[in-house]
Amino acid sequence: MKIKAAILWERGQPLSVEDAELDPPGLGEVLVEVKAAGVCHSDLHPARDDWPMRTPLALGHEGAGIVRDVGAGVTRVKPGDHVVFCWAPACGICPACAEGRAVLCDRLDRTTYRNRLPSGAVRLHARGQDIAHFLSTACFASHAVVAEEGAVVVGREGGENIPFDALATLGCAVVTGIGAVLAAAKVPRGATIAIIGAGGVGLNVAQGAVIAGCERIIAIDRHQVPLDIARRFGATDVVDAASNVADQVKSLTGGRGADFVFDTVGAPATLTDALAATRKGGTVVLTGLSRIDAMGNVPMFPFVMQEKRLIGSAYGSGRPAEDIVRLVDWYRQGRLKLRELVSRTYRLAEINDALAALGASAGARGIITET
Questions:
Q1: Would the pLDDT of 294 be above 90?
Q2: Tens digits of residue pLDDT in 100-133
Q3: In this structure, CATH architecture of domain 176-314
Q4: Domain spanning 2-162+338-370: CATH superfamily
Q5: Of 78, 172, 184, 315, which one has the greatest count of Cβ atoms within 10 A?
């Protein structure tokens, strides 16, 4: 079928929104009409040539839509289902999946991180070439073919459904930020946390901290707009990253530092700040994805004599497909902000403007809502 898609033909160059041909869904795959797509830093990295990915590549991995067709063998979703994309469709049978660590699924290394569908197939074509599916999703498009396990059912056509612009961020920013707090760090009630970077993931770390019952939530950013938004998501204090971050965090915590520091930026400098701002016995949680070639240079002494810990958290460190359903329930119960994450909306033709706004730290999330 003919669709519209935003294609990266050359790394570091603007995306081209153009006609493309999408094959029907194959075995275990579904066709989704994309209704809303979030613009995430993971899309910005290949667009800016921070990640050495093969092109041509159709970007977009965070979004929601309506199932329009299903391939052979599909049993869990059907046409008319409202779904949120899960960009890490786990196989369910490898050792990591058996341990309950779906985000470390072995199949992801062979397919999703090579920008292919879990079947290994490529269903998208343009200008006579195969177009890779970014993170097995490629939802900066009017339609996408994804694996059945990459489409999480959250409603049904004709039912009492959540608006798609609210659902769009669930599949990446929300599950990543909240999972980092609740699943990766297991932050206890009454803890003090600091968040470096008040973007889409950082705001959801703040939401997770509120749900966990944290006593103090310190948001840190270089820009005022994200800090203002962070207060609405539960931050009790905000810090301008232009001055010494560790000193400011310590001044807010009686000289001790935070119990947990979440680095949602993932740069060598922010990792250094995070370790310095953490109290003795505290934990740094790294969620931000850096350039592939970025190297952190951190002091080793505090890991022994101050028993600090550094852990990584990918995609919420849980079972994303199950976690997305739980987060939808929390939204219905009024425990979770979703629509408040949407600060800008764009047409698909404006995708390069959306990426530029993200790169300029315009705050919260830009959403593609029209193709």
A1: no
A2: 999 999 999 999 999 999 999 999 999 999 999 9
A3: 3-Layer(aba) Sandwich (3.40)
A4: Medium-chain alcohol dehydrogenases, catalytic domain (3.90.180.10)
A5: 172
